[in-house]
Amino acid sequence: MGWLADERRGDPLALWSEVRAVILLGLNYGPDRDPLAILEKPERAAISAYAQGDDYHDLIKPRLKSIARWLVATAGGDVKVFIDTAALMEKPLAAAAGLGWQGKHTNLVSRQFGSWLFIGAIFTTLPLHPDKAEDDHCGSCRACLDICPTAAFPAPYRLDARRCISYLTIEHKGPIARELRPLMGNRIYGCDDCLAVCPWNKFARAGREAKLAARTALQEPELRKLVHLDDAAFRAQFAKTAIKRIGRDRFVRNVLIAIGNSANPALAAEAEPLLSDPSPLVRGAAIWALGRLAPQRLAVTAQGRERDVPDVEEEWNAAVRTHSQL
């Protein structure tokens, strides 16, 4: 835990004009296995390590509130807590507070915990003495930049979110750009590549919080089982996890892209029924997956393709163009 004093009244980062300090807290969620190993199993889904356990928001926010209540009871003042709940630049604040430094992948790196830290913040009106900021210890290393599957780093310390698999699989609501889909492999929720390859992880420790430990069902789930989840089954399977936040349609879109990247024609039979899914997002991804695995079957189905949803029609057109060039 560290804190960053802020004497600038009215600073927009302060969120309210009387804030005098920001307390930053880090919670280690270090995985107990190599997050990159799953990438060698294309018929199974790669889920980011942080999302394989309980939703960190539900775990960390009560702890932040507990510390905040203690602070008020002990020293007075007003407080407000944040855990991904506002437009707050947690990583540079955490670096300024001494929890670590922002690596070339833009994420926080700790000499004690490597890349695996959740960050929470408490804003307070108390005038606390600031901790010393952490120095940058990346040196000449480029491991995180070079491993990125989609080349999402145009330069060290700069991230193009439009190419980041974590953004694409979690935050992006529409169809994912076709040129990026083959680069996603079997990553269906988040991406740990740039974190996992960081040399500072040699000092990392496995997380000790039981609720953040990976659920067995989420470590190496089969794509063929995930792709057929309806909304009720999706909600049941991912209850109390961060995954539930993206909803069934986005999730199945991601699974279909992974199926399309599997190079296993047997999985075409799992994608084909979703050509008639109620969700246009899912239908479009199913067209792409089937076109990758069994374009001859897609060519037959294309005779009755829909033409009233632009995104889906464009998927059909692209698939037909690709098939005609084979």
Give a verbal description of the structure.
- This protein is an alpha+beta fold.
- Among the domains are: 2-31 and 54-124, no CATH class; 222-326, no CATH class.
- The chain is built from 13 helices and 8 strands.
- It has a 4-stranded antiparallel sheet, sandwiched between helices.
- It starts with a strand and ends with a helix.
- Mean pLDDT is 89; it is low at 3-15.
Topology:
Blueprint (H helix, E strand, L loop, with lengths): L1 E4 L15 E8 L17 E2 L8 H20 L3 E4 L7 H7 L4 E2 L5 E2 L7 E8 L18 H5 L17 H7 L15 E3 L3 H4 L19 H4 L3 H4 L4 H7 L9 H14 L7 H4 L8 H14 L1 H7 L8 H15 L2
Parallel strand pairs: 3-8
Antiparallel strand pairs: 1-2, 2-7, 4-7, 5-6
Number of helices in the DSSP assignment = 13
* Main beta-sheet strand count, sense and barrel state: 4 strands, antiparallel
SS-based class? alpha+beta
- The ordered string of helix (H) and strand (E) elements is EEEHEHEEEHHEHHHHHHHHH
Give the distance, in angstroms, between the N- and C-terminal Cα atoms.
58 Å
Instruction: Please estimate the helix content.
Output: 25-40%
Give the total of beta strands: 8
Q: If you average the pLDDT, what whole number results?
A: 89
Q: Strand share of the residues? A: 5-15%
Indicate the overall shape. elongated
- The oligomeric status of these chains comes to single chain
